[in-house]
Design brief:
The chain has 362 residues and is of the alpha/beta class. The chain has a domain at 91-185 and 265-273 and 297-346: P-loop containing nucleotide triphosphate hydrolases (Rossmann fold). 47% of the residues lie in helices and 18% in strands. The chain contains 21 helices and 10 strands. The strands form 2 sheets. Strands 6-7-8-3-9-10 form a 6-stranded mixed beta sheet, sandwiched between helices. A hairpin with a 2-residue loop joins strand 9 and strand 10 (319-325). Helix 13 runs parallel beside helix 15. The radius of gyration is 40 Å and the shape is globular.
Length: 362
């Protein structure tokens, strides 16, 4: 029985069963071969693509930088557009654009030239040997006192008033020798323009476009675009006689632009136009100039001329007494101060003391 018990003692090989769970942990250390997967060195492939990707962008950025300066010396107009759009965000955008435009316009060819332009009415000299040069892509203002000869000069430039002597040419075409060809290159807005006001706005635009040789399909497209630009789309079906003075000025300006002229000759274009519409018209004219067109504009608002124009001509008694870029003519002063200085006009008016002493005399 004891031996059987001894035989039962071997029965505790249950301990080897406890050993059996021990070998089960043994495979777990064997599973520790997982570090072998770790040394599979995932970082190695990571390190390899990393330098490759770094090297790729570097050469890509270099050629693009090299390509940017290349086009700028090749063509002047292309670099011109980039700085303009960048400079619009300065505090006084119109003035900065005008100065930049004036500096660049000096390098462009002359698109409009008057040579010793003179107009006399008997013994009265309305314009006396006026010589002006307007470069392509420039915005030129013409200023002067009332009766100085501004309207006379602009009328001779646009082909509406024959000069007594002198010559006017647009892109090399003489305005008075070859009038039809020259007038295709000029868009004119005269002072006190008489419109065909029994036509609707759409009919007037159509008439102006066809008269300048624009085909009907282009006239229809341009009319709708101009109407939207000037805020006249809802008034095209109405008679021009029913338009307000400001609306008539805007439809007349649209008629002057419908044939895409090279030069716009505008006599007091902002007269009778409200401030919001004036800002809109200014933006349209600036875009026209930025696209290569040229504007010659008269105005009594010296602040507007200084803010919008890049060149200015001052006319007094029918003669040009100063012209050039706005900054050159101003000579460090405001344009109004310089104008007063050149014309000999003073803000302080003497006399009329009786108006201020009426209470004392009573």
């Amino acid at each position: 029985m004891r031996p059987s018990r001894a035989a039962g003692a071997p029965v505790p090989p249950v301990t080897p069963r406890a050993d059996a769970p021990q070998p089960s942990p043994v495979p777990t250390p064997e599973a520790e071969v997982v570090p072998e997967a770790a040394p599979a060195v995932a970082p190695e492939p990571v390190a390899q693509p990393a330098p490759e990707s770094l090297s790729t962008p570097e050469p890509v950025a270099e050629p693009t930088r090299a390509a940017e300066p290349a086009p700028s010396p090749e063509s002047t107009p292309e670099p011109t557009a980039a700085p303009r759009t960048g400079r619009i965000q300065v505090p006084v955008p119109s003035v900065v654009r005008a100065r930049e435009r004036g500096r660049l316009a000096e390098q462009n060819p002359v698109v409009l030239r008057t040579e010793m332009l003179t107009k006399t009415y008997g013994s009265v000299i309305a314009a006396n040997e006026v010589s002006i040069e307007v470069h392509a892509g420039s915005f030129t203002g013409v200023v002067g006192p009332n009766g100085a000869g501004k309207t006379t000069t602009l009328s001779m430039i646009s082909g509406l008033l024959r000069p007594t002597s002198g010559r006017v040419s647009v892109s090399g075409v003489d305005v008075w020798t070859d009038g039809p060809a020259a007038k295709r290159l000029i868009g004119s807005l005269p002072d006190r323009l008489r419109l065909f006001d029994r036509l609707t706005g759409a009919q007037l635009l159509y008439y102006s476009g066809v008269l300048h040789g624009v085909d009907e399909a282009a006239v229809a497209q341009r009319s709708s675009e101009l109407a939207v630009a000037f805020g006249l789309e809802s008034a095209l079906g109405r008679l021009v006689s029913d338009y307000s003075a400001g609306m008539q000025k805007k439809i007349a300006l649209a008629c002057a632009m419908i044939h895409a002229p090279e030069v716009l000759v505008l006599d007091e274009p902002f007269e009778t136009i409200d401030p919001v519409s004036a800002a809109n018209v200014t933006e349209i004219l600036e875009k026209y100039v930025a696209g290569g067109g040229s504007v010659v504009m008269s105005s009594h608002s010296l602040d507007l001329i200084q803010r919008v124009c890049d060149h200015v001509s001052i006319i007094v008694d029918g003669s040009v007494i100063a012209q050039g870029t706005v900054d050159a003519v101003r000579d460090g002063l405001s344009l109004e101060e310089r104008f007063t200085q050149l014309t000999g006009m003073s803000d302080t008016q003497k006399g009329l003391e009786w108006l201020h002493g009426s209470s004392e005399s009573a």
